[in-house]
Write a structure and sequence with these properties.
By secondary structure, the protein is of the alpha/beta class. The chain has helices at about 10-20, 35-45, 60-75, 105-130, 145-150, 165-180, 210-215, 215-220, and strands at about 5, 25-30, 50-55, 80-85, 135-140, 190-195, 235, 240. The chain has one domain (about 5-240): NAD(P)-binding Rossmann-like Domain (Rossmann fold), CATH 3.40.50.720. Helix 3 packs parallel to helix 4 (about 105-130) and helix 4 runs parallel beside helix 6 (about 165-180). Keywords: NADP, Oxidoreductase.
Length: about 240
């Protein structure tokens, strides 16, 4: 039996990722800051016969991180898939570059949730991932974390400068590269995923992609075969520049 944990999964891309993984016969822990909301989100999936279990995990809460590690250890003895899906966009979408006035508070809050929390959770769960025969770690990044595209005039994101969010995703990408390097030679693969611009609360209705497509990159990376990539940055199955 394969076991997956998806954070920030009571709605949007996270919830769809849970559904698609569970449809492959994987036992999926649906992580949510609010357990009641998580249970409400899990209910129709469970009713459809999928092995989905709601768990409380506020990624910013050290106690929650410790508790989820203890729960997984007790219930399953291992973890096969970790998808660091939870994240925040506090800058707000837009084309106006406000880097010079981005507050320290916004930077701190953004980096706490988008960078420090997934690093801490991954470190807490790594002993359980090492017990898997094919551990997979997926960090939900964004094309907005690509330094190359941000620096390239005419790129799709050249004028989309949301400083706190963009730099947090660039830092998360760096974590992917560093951890994948450390774990090279093991059975664990670590990759960053750009889901695309998706119709979610964060992406808004202006986004061109539907939620089912937004989950595809994460699901692909979570179920990579032994000869699959590690230490990469992908959208669908295309490599993105760092």
């Amino acid at each position: 039996m394969s076991v997956a944990l998806v954070t920030g999964a009571n709605k949007g891309i996270g919830l769809e990722t849970v559904k698609q993984l569970a449809e492959q016969g994987i036992t999926v822990l649906l992580g949510s800051r609010d357990l009641a909301r998580g249970e409400a989100a899990a209910a129709p999936l469970k009713a459809a016969g999928l092995d989905v279990r709601a768990v409380k995990i506020d990624v910013d809460n050290a106690g929650d991180r410790e508790a989820i590690a203890a729960y997984i250890e007790k219930e399953f003895g291992k973890l096969d898939i970790l998808i660091n899906n939870a994240g925040v966009l506090l800058d707000g979408m837009g084309l106006s570059n406000r880097t010079s006035t981005t507050s320290q508070e916004m930077l701190s809050q953004t980096f706490q949730t988008n960078v420090l929390a997934p690093i801490a959770l991954t470190q807490a769960l790594l002993p359980l991932l090492r017990k898997s025969s094919a551990g997979r770690i997926v960090n939900l990044s964004s094309i907005l974390g690509s330094l190359t595209l941000h620096a390239t005039k005419g790129s799709p994101i050249y004028d989309a400068k949301t400083f706190a969010y963009d730099t947090s995703k660039a830092a998360l990408n760096s974590f992917t590269i560093h951890l994948a390097h450390e774990l090279s030679g093991t059975s664990i693969k670590v990759n960053s995923a750009h889901p695309g611009w998706v119709k979610t609360d964060m992406g808004t209705d202006a986004a061109p992609m539907e939620i089912p497509d937004g989950a595809k990159t994460s699901v692909w990376l979570a179920t990579l075969p032994e000869d699959g990539p590690s230490g990469g940055f992908f959208h669908m199955q295309d490599t993105l520049p760092w």
